[in-house]
Amino acid sequence: VVGILSIVAQTLFLTLLMRYLGNKNTVLLGLGFQILQLAWYGFGSEPWMMWAAGAVAAMSSITFPAVSALVSQSADSDKQGVVQGMITGIRGLCNGLGPALYGFIFFLFNVEFNTMDPIQEEYSIDPLPLHGPTEVKAPRTLVLTLHLWFKRLII
Questions:
Q1: 3-state secondary structure string, the chain?
Q2: The domain containing residue 33 runs over which residues?
Q3: What pLDDT, in 10s, does the model give residues 64-103?
Q4: pTM above 0.85, yes or no
Q5: Do residues 133 and 111 make contact, with C-beta atoms less than 8 angstroms apart?
Q6: What span, in angstroms and rounded, lies between the C-alpha atoms of 36 and 26?
Q7: Environment class of residue 103 by beta-carbon count within 10 Å: exposed (0-12), middle (13-18) or buried (19+)?
Q8: Per the structure, how many domains does the chain have?
């Protein structure tokens, strides 16, 4: 479902947003959708909230193409390959380091996903287990991450 919505967002909505808002504002809108999506995943407590956050994630998929277009317009014609390669390289680096960083943060807060009970129903989603330290520590992880991110923006 999210994949299909991402296709629609990157073809139909991205074209319209780039035309009417411009590159920079489309990037900012995509980043705003990403912030909303991540916060919704972090604070959501019902299964329908996870699906709704997935729809917002589909809209946030406009960010990378919009950044690529913005950089493409800002770079000289003979430097296009260099700047697009740099952007793709940075994205790959973040895709690799992000999970490692969050794994370390979960380790610091003693969040264990292996000790969770399995889902009882066939298609049921249990976003917040009612036992153990995970219930309290996961929102702390989100708050700590947001704090560090804002601190990094200020410095």
A1: CHHHHHHHHHHHHHHHHHHHCCHHHHHHHHHHHHHHHHHHHHHCCCHHHHHHHHHHHHHHCCHHHHHHHHHHHHCCHHHHHHHHHHHHHHHHHHHHHHHHHHHHHHHHCCCCCCCCCCCCCCCCCCCCCCCCCHHHHHHHHHHHHHHHHHHHHHC
A2: 1-74
A3: 999 999 999 989 989 999 999 999 898 888 888 888 888 8
A4: no
A5: yes
A6: 15
A7: exposed
A8: 1
Query: How many CA atoms does the CB half-sphere of 88 hold within 13 Å?
Result: 8
Residue 68 resides in a domain: yes
Domain membership flag for residue 102 = no
* Torsion sign, CA atoms 93, 99, 101, 102: positive
Would 63 be classed as within a structural domain?
yes
Higher-pLDDT residue of 117, 18: 18
